[in-house]
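Name: ArsR family transcriptional regulator
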Amino acid sequence: MNSGTDGREAGRAELWGEFARVGKALGSGTRLQMLDLLAQGQRSVESLAQTLGLGVSTASAHLQTLKRAQLVRTHRVKNHVFYTLAGDDVAALLSLVQRVAGTHLAEVERAWHHFTGPGQGEIEEVDRAELLARLDQGSALVLDVRPEAEFAAGHLPGAVSIPVDELTRRLDEVPEDTDIVAYCRGDYCVMAVDAVRVLRSHGRRAYRLNEGLLEWRASGRPVHTGSA
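Structure predicted for ArsR family transcriptional regulator:
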């Protein structure tokens, strides 16, 4: 084998090795959850650690793996380091990973039903096309049931914010004569499931959007920012 062929073989190995860095970074359920949270907006190390029940040092180590693969970026505000996704293409990658797993792994569906509890099949869903059609007709209210900080960082245009843990005491803010479409972080986020159950138990016509901000952002559709 001549030197030119040796160089090409070395280059090919190096190329696929670089691709593998991304695959390795994705090879952790904890790091995938971190990307899912960062798709909602920037987070500090401390916030991610608290949300995921991790020690700060453990969370930092996972984030460094994501950073080495250039999937996240950092910026500092005073004494805190904040992480963001490196781009909407990272959100698209995470959404694709979930979709491929959901298509090819039967265990994903079983785990999802175990996560959401009994009665998941009773919840009606709408897709993006149907949601947009209802919005054009003025026949639906879009309800964002994520925490307020995530809503402020980015939400669907026209959405109203009522976090799921505040929904029961704020039911008077939800109209009784309008279809309610609830969404949260992504297709595998349980908050919208819980919200629909609460709303339907109180007589509202509630549906779950079969995606969340992750998929909306990954598709390149506009995301609005600002508090409720």
